[in-house]
Design a protein that fits this description.
Strand order of the largest sheet of chain A: 2-3-4-1-5
Shape of chain B: elongated
CATH architecture of the largest domain in chain B: 3-Layer(aba) Sandwich
CATH topology of the largest domain in chain A: Rossmann fold
Structural class of chain A: alpha/beta
Distance between the termini of chain A: 58 Å
Number of strands of chain A: 8
Protein name (chain B): Origin of replication complex subunit 4
Radius of gyration of chain B: 30 Å
GO molecular function (chain B): ATP binding; ATP hydrolysis activity; DNA replication origin binding
Number of strands of chain B: 7
Distance between the termini of chain B: 73 Å
CATH topology of the largest domain in chain B: Rossmann fold
CATH class of the largest domain in chain B: Alpha Beta
Oligomer: heterodimer
Low-confidence stretches of chain A: 1-36, 49-54, 140-144, 328-360, 394-402, 451-465
Structural class of chain B: alpha/beta
Radius of gyration of chain A: 30 Å
CATH superfamily of the largest domain in chain A: P-loop containing nucleotide triphosphate hydrolases
CATH class of the largest domain in chain A: Alpha Beta
Low-confidence stretches of chain B: 231-237
Largest sheet of chain A: 5 strands, parallel
Subcellular location (chain B): Nucleus
Shape of chain A: extended
Helix content of chain B: 40-55%
Keywords (chain B): ATP-binding, DNA replication, DNA-binding, Nucleotide-binding, Nucleus
CATH superfamily of the largest domain in chain B: P-loop containing nucleotide triphosphate hydrolases
Family (chain B): Belongs to the ORC4 family.
Largest interface: A-B, 60 and 66 residues
């Protein structure tokens, strides 16, 4: 318990936050250190003394396109030292943290920055440790004699002591709490949150400026007894023009790129307004756009523009219906580093609908695929229909009995459909899964035999050998999250399973083993 | 010449701004105007505490009122005055309900502060019982030495959670004749005294001082007091206005007040609605339609069904695939414009968990009206169902 928790990230940022140019901590091996993210570089930059030339307000505003009003607000509210608490709020990817850190860099002389990203500090204890270690003059290592306080009272006392030492030297301290919204879901978040928000009252130190950054709106923090509200600065999402400015920023061929953006940005903007997602989608699209061009430095004329537009139009339609997955920063860098690899991945991304099935090659054994399909069927079909669907004759054409569709029965059917939609995939016991598995493998036994290993030991030795194998594969599927295992039912005592895959994926898997899945699916 | 004069004016202005900012950030200065006028809570509290110090008796009082009415500032001012009047006769112990609501922690803190006041060495290892005993002994000793201990309990309502052992032992110790102590509770819950247990309540003197938000007149006086500069310099609220002060002219113009007002009167939900993409708006409108159809609960799959039917009916260009819509749905969840209806079924896939809107249809309609890029179809979809 007495072992202080100091996450690696905090020790590093504390090393960079100390005003003297501290040497890189020798304890952390340089090889295992991940690539610094832009945010962390910014953090280091915010802590470092400003460069002589680039610290004018205009330079600051130039670095924050579309955020002029917000940056001015921040500067005004923070600027001469005594300041009331400040809260920046706005959606994801609107430049809250960036604007704040750049503004703090601009205000740099005679201030000290303590930055806590609450998302990376999983508990109050880690938060306290991080704050105190950033404040203490000597970065405290895990083996130091300092005891990390875990009670709020001890923490506030320790924090006040540490801050008093700095403030008495005439320095201003900026305490920044980033990602404040995650505290709400913490274990004791309900107690910690008022503490953080009322820190200004508790500390009573005018030279300590508190800044909160949150993607949740201020009304998420109202509590029963209230607290004195901080000053809010709202960061709205970027407009189309601002997004264009941001994307055009420092582009090698602005003419070409702007003609591309005039085609591609508007439709994508209807789907999402987040800059990070947009830039992730636009990058491969632009590469596609440039393909007909031999020379990337070329300035396009009208005819060329039209040709390029016709070329990119089909790809644009595909891109619109693809998920915007924002790649990790590191992997994005890799794509940029290796040009050929980047092109390969871009090609794969735009292989189109028909290409998807070829892309979808999981290395999965045939019986695992069958198991997956039977789990899918067991989840989607009502259990009462199993007998009809998997008759010993293997056919399902004997469903001739059709009830009269009276008004009442139609209505009942509607509500059942509704219920199915609400409940989602159902759960099933292991026995049902195995029964379905046996049925569908026996139906397509000929296919299985073809593919089976030449020894054909398993099928000869009967079902017992197959079963043990199946159980193993079942646990593999559960581990890879294709199936989920729910808690065991208190009455029956056995665990129940549920399939997590959607219909598209199931159909693709079925196609890969030539299994007529749609024949077995209960249509409502 | 003119430039030099302008620079001088700017420096004077920034000095003035610094003075004003410092003043507005300091609680004590903000409420010190109360000191001068009679018949305020300040004078009442001062009379109460001063009389119990001079007459050597026990007393307890609650200061109740919403936040920002100057409760803590009044306590501070009274204590400052008393320290000046009776420098040796009082010692102050401060506790905060947010930090010390735990009984053990509170008694430890009391013992620590008592030790600090009386130059005794404080043992961190002392048990909670030891600390309580020490507190009672100190109360007796101080009573014999005619010294008053003043306990200031901020966030008093939080001390009234749980067993209230601290309050009981404190108020019980004050029942004896030898002790000499004042308990000042500060809370922004007006029903704080109702939270007390019977055994605690019976030992509590039911003195309450109610703080109300200042009237317009007194606010005006307060503003004058705050914004007038000490020397009669050529320069003529709140913090935000001063921050928006125009450094070039050195004046607090009407414009800066207007700016500050507009940035403080924001409606976060409406702002959030303005930030949505068209697809996200479609999903919200579909959810609103489902709610108007009096669906008891619905999830992403049902929303997609509605979305498909809308797209089929109107043949708009905004028909996107399932996964793209799901990403937009996740954005809405992120922005907290919609949320899951219950906490059950955490292991269920997100598509199937029931959701609900966190905005009213009026807000949605207004934001659609304000949104210039919003397609007319959306507006129609929302309006039609209202008049049907």
């Amino acid at each position: 318990m007495s072992q202080p928790v100091t996450p690696r990230r905090t020790t590093r940022s504390s090393a960079s936050a100390s005003p003297s140019p501290a040497p890189a901590s020798p304890t952390s091996p340089p090889k295992s250190r991940p690539k610094p993210s832009p945010r962390r570089q910014l953090l280091a930059a915010a802590a470092a003394p400003p460069k002589e030339d680039g610290s004018s307000a205009d330079a600051l505003l130039a670095e924050l396109p579309g955020r002029r009003a917000q940056a001015m607000d921040i500067l005004r509210l923070l600027a001469p030292a005594p300041a009331l608490p400040l809260m920046l709020h706005g959606g994801a990817a609107t430049g809250k943290t960036r604007a704040l850190l750049l503004a703090l860099r601009y205000l740099r002389p005679s201030q000290r920055l303590v930055y806590a990203a609450l998302r990376s500090l999983p508990s109050p204890r880690a938060l306290f440790a991080s704050l105190l270690s950033q404040l203490s003059a000597t970065p405290f290592s895990t083996s130091s004699r300092h005891r990390v306080p875990d009670k709020p009272s001890d923490f506030v006392a320790a924090l006040r002591d540490a801050l008093n030492g700095i403030v008495s030297q005439g320095e201003v301290v900026y305490l920044v709490f980033d990602n404040l919204e995650v505290v709400r879901s913490w274990d004791k978040g309900g107690q910690l949150l008022p503490l953080l928000l009322r820190l200004h009252d508790l500390l009573q130190l005018p030279q300590v400026v508190l800044v909160y950054v949150s993607s949740a709106t201020p009304d998420a923090y109202y509590s029963m007894t209230g607290s004195v509200e901080p000053n809010y600065v709202y960061f709205p999402d970027y407009t189309v023009d601002e997004v264009r400015d941001i994307l055009m920023h420092d582009h090698p061929n602005p003419k070409l790129y702007s003609s591309f953006l005039s085609v591609a940005l508007k439709p994508l903007f209807r789907v999402t307004r987040r800059v990070d997602e947009l830039s992730a989608v636009l990058e491969p699209l632009f590469r596609r756009y440039c393909e007909p061009l031999g020379d990337l430095k070329a300035v396009p004329d009208e005819g060329m523009k039209r040709r390029l537009f016709e070329h990119v139009q089909s790809h644009l339609a595909v891109a619109l219906n693809e998920t915007f997955n924002v790649p990790m920063r590191a992997s994005m860098d890799e794509i940029k580093d290796g040009g050929s690899a980047g092109k390969g991945s871009a090609k794969r991304q735009f292989a189109g609908k028909d290409g998807l099935s070829s892309e979808l090659e999981f290395h999965m054994s045939v019986s695992a695929k069958y198991l997956l399909l039977s789990a899918f069927l067991a989840s989607r079909n009502p259990a009462t229909l199993d007998a009809a669907l998997f008759d010993s004759t293997g056919g399902l054409d004997n469903r001739k009995r059709k009830r009269k569709s009276s008004q009442a029965s139609m209505h009942m059917k509607d509500t059942i459909v509704e219920e199915m939609l609400m409940k989602g995939p159902g759960t099933f016991p292991l026995e049902r899964l195995l029964a379905i598995f046996q049925c569908i493998t026996s139906v397509s036994e000929d296919i299985l035999d073809e593919i089976d290993c030449p020894g054909n030991m398993a099928s000869e030795s009967g079902t017992t050998g197959l079963m043990s194998d199946v159980l193993l594969q079942l646990s593999t599927l559960c581990n890879s999250n294709f199936l989920s295992k729910s808690r065991s039912c208190p009455l029956e005592g056995s665990a129940r399973y549920r399939s997590n895959i959607d219909e598209d994926l199931a159909l693709k898997v079925a196609r890969s083993v030539n299994f007529p899945l749609s024949k077995y699916m209960y249509r409502r | 010449m003119a430039a030099a004069a302008a620079a001088a004016a700017a420096s004077v202005a920034s000095q003035a701004q610094a003075v004003l900012r410092g003043r507005l950030c300091d609680q004590a200065v903000v409420h010190s105007a109360l000191r001068s006028s009679p018949d305020t809570n300040y004078s009442k509290l001062k009379y109460l505490v001063a009389s119990s110090v001079s007459e050597a008796c026990n007393n307890s009082v609650l200061l109740l009122g919403p936040r920002g009415c100057g409760k803590a500032a009044v306590v501070d001012m009274v204590l400052d005055d008393l320290k000046k009047d009776h420098p040796d006769a009082i010692s102050v112990i401060r506790l905060n309900g947010m930090l010390h609501s735990d009984d053990n922690c509170a008694t430890k803190e009391i013992a620590r502060q008592l030790c600090l006041e009386h130059q005794l060495s404080f043992s961190k290892m002392a048990s909670s019982d030891d600390n309580t005993e020490f507190m009672i002994d100190m109360l007796r000793e101080c009573g014999l030495a005619h010294k008053t201990i003043i306990f200031v309990l901020e966030e008093f309502d939080l001390f009234a959670q749980g067993k209230q052992r601290l309050l009981y032992s404190l108020l019980d110790a004050m029942q004896s004749l030898t002790s000499q102590a004042v308990v000042i509770g500060v809370s922004c819950r007006l029903d704080a005294d109702q939270l007390l247990e019977k055994r605690v309540r019976s030992r509590f003197s039911h003195r309450k001082l109610l703080f109300v938000p200042s009237s317009v007149d007194s606010l005006q006086r307060l503003m004058e007091h705050l914004l007038a500069l000490p020397e009669d310099s050529p320069l003529p609220t709140n913090f935000r206005v001063v921050s928006y002060m125009d450094i070039d002219s050195g004046l607090l113009s009407m414009q800066s007040f207007m700016n500050a007002l507009s940035s403080m009167q924001r409606q976060p939900k409406m702002d959030g609605l303005q930030d949505l993409s068209i697809l996200e708006l479609y999903i919200l409108v579909c959810m609103n339609r489902l709610e108007d159809k009096e669906k008891s609960s619905y999830n992403f799959i049902t929303i997609m069904k509605e979305y498909k039917s809308v797209q089929d009916a109107y043949k708009t260009s905004d028909k996107y695939s399932h996964t793209v819509c799901f990403r937009a749905f996740e954005h809405l969840l992120d922005r907290e414009l919609i949320s899951f209806a219950d906490n059950k079924g955490r292991n269920q896939a997100l598509e199937y968990r029931p959701v609900k809107l966190l905005i009213s249809s009026r807000e949605l309609a207004e934001s659609l009206k304000l949104n210039t890029t919003c397609p007319a179809v959306l507006q129609k979809l929302l309006d039609r169902e209202r008049y049907m």
